[in-house]
């Protein structure tokens, strides 16, 4: 039987897998915020008392670190229950008062905790938005985030960038030829998708180009404000670079 195309349920199973849980919990305990994340959050979310939402919080790496920086009104959610449990445990250990929820970004507004929410800002860091299979579902998540944010609220998120280096550009030209001949990995749904396995388990990731994200923001109630490759923002430590590849930071405002 040919391998089946990747679904959101498969992605969720991958994140609930013990290998992924250990990987993200270790990062939440030991790594904390990247220099670039801290810079962008402090620049775009200066009010530490404002109600802020973290989507795809995983084991709490970002929100628990933000609480330690004085952010007082944090809500965070993830669709992988095992990771939410890790985040709750870490927040309790660090005495961080954060509201955690088990929720899916593509169905947020129908979740009872978010039905009447109006956040002053939101973030979806370390490429979580790009781990939602199919562009229409990523757009759905962006619309749902817009629905729970106040007009003008900033959204900060990261993605990979298919064009960020000559080697990437060559590899995507080859991938385009495979798609043109119908020889791509049959588990992939759209050009730009990648599925790989390493010692933290199986990972699905969509790698966009810049035009794709600009169009998605415009179509989903967000006004693009700025975007930068991580290397343009900060020099990250060796441990951050071992944990994560180059990415692009995006800032948009709720229209
Ligand atoms: C790369 S991990 C990053 C986790 C955490 N933000 C960090 O930086 O350590 C991406 C996260 O997005 C979550 N995620 C992916 N799709 C989601 C969805 N549809 N709804 C909510 N969370 C989602 C995953 O479960 C995972 O925890």
What does this structure look like?
It is a single chain. This protein has 255 residues and is of the alpha/beta class. It has a single domain (8-254), classed as Rossmann fold (3-Layer(aba) Sandwich), CATH 3.40.50. 40% of the residues lie in helices and 20% in strands. The protein is globular. The chain binds S-adenosylmethionine (SAM). S-adenosylmethionine binds at residues 11, 15, 24, 27, 56-58, 61-62, 78-80, 83, 104-106, 125-128, 131-132.
Fraction of residues in helix: 25-40%
User: Care to count the β-strands?
Assistant: 9
According to CATH, what is the class? Alpha Beta
Structural class: alpha/beta
Named once each, the bound ligands are: S-adenosylmethionine
Distance between the termini: 46 Å
Query: In DSSP terms, counting alpha (H) and pi (I) runs of 4 or more, how many helices?
Result: 10
- Topology as a string of helices (H) and strands (E): HHHEHEHEEHEHEEHEHHE
Main beta sheet: 7 strands, mixed
Task: Give a summary of the structure in a few sentences.
The chain contains 10 helices and 9 strands. The chain is α/β, with parallel strands linked by helices and 255 residues long. It has one domain: 3-Layer(aba) Sandwich (Rossmann fold).
How would the blueprint of this fold be written?
Blueprint: H1 8-16, H2 18-30, H3 35-44, E1 52-55, H4 61-68, E2 74-78, H5 81-93, E3 99-102, E4 121-124, H6 135-147, E5 154-159, H7 166-180, E6 193-198, E7 201-206, H8 210-219, E8 222-229, H9 230-233, H10 238-243, E9 248-254
Parallel strand pairs: 1-2, 1-4, 2-3, 4-5
Antiparallel strand pairs: 5-9, 6-7, 8-9
């Amino acid at each position: 039987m040919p391998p089946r195309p990747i679904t959101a349920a498969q992605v969720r199973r991958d994140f609930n897998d013990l290998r992924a849980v250990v990987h993200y919990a270790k990062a939440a305990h030991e790594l904390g915020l990247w220099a670039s994340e801290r810079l962008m959050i402090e620049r775009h979310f200066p009010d530490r008392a404002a109600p802020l939402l973290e989507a795809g919080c995983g084991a709490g790496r970002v929100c628990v670190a933000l609480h330690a920086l004085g952010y007082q009104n944090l809500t965070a959610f993830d669709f992988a229950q095992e990771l939410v449990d890790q985040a709750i445990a870490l927040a309790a250990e660090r005495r961080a008062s954060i509201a955690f929820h088990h929720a899916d970004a593509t169905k947020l507004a129908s979740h009872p905790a978010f039905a009447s929410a109006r956040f002053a800002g939101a973030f979806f860091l370390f490429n979580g938005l790009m781990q939602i299979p199919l562009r229409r579902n990523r757009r759905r998540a962006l619309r749902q985030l817009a629905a729970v944010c106040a007009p003008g609220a900033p959204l900060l998120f990261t993605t990979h960038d298919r064009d960020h280096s000559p080697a990437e550009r060559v590899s995507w030209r080859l991938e385009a030829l495979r798609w043109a001949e119908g020889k791509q990995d049959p588990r992939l749904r759209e050009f730009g998708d990648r599925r790989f396995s390493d010692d933290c388990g199986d990972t699905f990731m969509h790698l966009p180009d810049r035009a794709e994200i600009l169009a998605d923001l415009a179509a989903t109630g967000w006004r693009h404000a700025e975007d930068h490759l991580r290397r343009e923002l900060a020099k990250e430590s060796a441990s951050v670079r071992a944990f994560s590849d180059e990415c692009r930071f995006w800032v948009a405002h709720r229209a």
